[in-house]
Amino acid sequence: MATTKKPSTPTLTYEDRSDLLETFADNVQRMTFDGRTLRIEFCVARKDDPPTGQPARTGRSIPVVRLILAPRRRASTTIGKPSAVTKLAR
Fold first, then answer.
1. Does the N-terminal or the C-terminal CB of the chain have fewer CB atoms within 10 Å?
2. Is residue 12 part of a domain?
């Protein structure tokens, strides 16, 4: 009986990048999973300028980051944190 070896996963060393920009978001607007990838859209809320003397009643939700996680990467980021994605959605 022949056995097949699974390719070994390389050991990765974290390497910080000081030139990496940070993006701030107010909320998670949309999360979708198509069976292969998890897509998360982070947005900021911006209020429209109201007419003089009236409170702002309208605004916009503007996407600032669309994060896409592949299957292996998604699993590795949530191990030990089963509700991490659920918490992000809140």
1. N
2. no
